[in-house]
Design a protein that fits this description.
Two copies of one chain form a homodimer.
Chain A (H helix, E strand, L loop, with lengths): L9 E14 L2 E8 L9 E2 L1 E4 L6 H13 L5 E8 L10 E9 L7 H6 L2 E5 L10 H18 L13 H12 L5 H10 L3 E8 L7 E6 L17
Parallel strand pairs in A: 1-6
Antiparallel strand pairs in A: 1-2, 1-4, 2-3, 2-7, 5-6, 8-9
The structure holds a DNA duplex.
Chain lengths: 229, 229
DNA sequence: ACAAAAGTGTTTCGGCTACACCCATGC
DNA sequence: GCATGGGTGTAGCCGAAACACTTTTGT
């Protein structure tokens, strides 16, 4: 433990992760079945304590690795929840993260082993404490991000069709997009690369697979989806 | 002190505030001259410890009240900085806030009494620890916010001209805006109300003063400034 | 033949930009 | 009269949206 010259109150600090995934045309969320009090047996976000000598980001990565076996996961800070009464088990300040992971790459056994489960985003159960509010915040942040940056690299498989990307966007924004306009908009960004392979399972005619360009550091764009309609 | 059933590491948690103000056609920042180690004598953000039984928001409000005498200040979370080595005095997790205050309404004596000072945003001195990075983050957040929401209510005096608002926006975005187009865009939002008074000090002809509409709960708009040019 | 997704083209509309241009007034 | 900011008008461009239409192929 680091010695500190400060003489002031200290607090339990936790991280809670909203983990987004995409599978079977649905936006999903990885939730944990609590095995300890308080609220044992209910569903909650995946979380953990922040240890000495680690950043809150490292703590979140540790939690993710523990539950999914994955490293180098996309993580972003969402918000801090600090109501002294938010956790009946004691005063805990929680730093909330959202993560995006590729369901096809993670360790399914590790997930079940920990009592976690993937839930369709729009069918998730009520969560403990203020976790529903956290999910709400993370969803807003995800929408904001997806509105000015092409996301999907961390959610979709390495090759995917424009249809799959559109369905992902429709799941995130919970609205539909015109197929023709969506395709033109997305491809005009020059962020995707067309592969020579076609998908023939989702359509009769077959659709080209695309992947994110390697070189493309900045997947930034002016605007992909207009918010605040 | 609240009793806790948890047996895990605890941490010092602080808040640091980036306090924006507007005066003499300039975007300003309230900084503090450190009177204690480490880095005594250097400039830093205004900060304080999070106490038992208060939210991080309350802690930030407390700091603001202490330095400016103001309550009900606009506050927004920016980011959490948690590098174990960020503060040489010990391991401190810092929650960063940005605030907007009306310089004309605050308690100037209280500010000097605490060794704080208003600095022009683009002429601020280098700050201690990771505080420069925090300011950077807050500035980005301010730009984002100002891009889809008309800000100024918490920075400008209660009545102001379109010119003053434009100068504020130019200070925030560090670019110029076409006077005619800016005026039309802003007024088309129907968020401002024209008063019957004119300002005759800044121009010969005199310009109408405006104020934010009272009823107007949502000052949201599609987009005011296009980001990511 | 029909359905269903793939992919392209076209038209319309509205907002943003870049100006030009008049107004009012102090110097 | 001239400079300065106040304020209005307008033409051109470009992207978003709506939607028509053709292609391909499995059933």
């Amino acid at each position: 433990m680091t010695t500190s010259q400060y003489k002031f109150p200290t607090h339990h600090v936790a991280v809670d992760c909203i983990i987004f995934g995409y599978e079977n045309e649905k936006l999903k969320l990885l939730l944990s079945h609590r095995r300890f009090e308080p609220e044992q047996g209910k569903w909650s976000l995946l979380g953990g304590w922040v240890e000495e000598n680690e950043t809150v980001e490292k703590a979140a990565e540790r939690v993710l690795l523990q539950y999914t076996g994955l490293k180098d996961i996309y993580l972003e800070q969402v918000h801090v929840f600090s109501d002294p009464a938010r956790d009946p088990g004691g005063r805990v300040i929680s730093i909330v993260f959202f993560a995006m992971i590729r369901i096809d790459k993670h360790d399914k056994e590790l997930v079940t082993e920990h009592g976690a489960k993937w839930w369709a985003f729009n069918k998730k159960p009520a969560l403990v404490f203020d976790h529903d509010q956290m999910v709400e915040h993370a969803h807003e942040k995800l929408k904001l991000k997806a509105s000015y940056e092409l996301i999907g690299k961390n959610l979709l498989p390495s090759k995917f069709t424009v249809l799959q990307l559109r369905i992902l966007y429709e799941a995130i924004f919970q609205r539909s997009f015109d197929p023709g306009n969506f395709r033109k908009k997305i491809l005009s960004l020059k962020i995707l690369e067309r592969l020579d392979v076609k998908n023939t399972t989702d359509s009769k005619r077959g659709a080209y697979y695309y992947s994110f360009r390697k070189e493309n550091g900045l997947s930034f764009s002016e605007r992909i989806v207009k918010l605040h309609s």
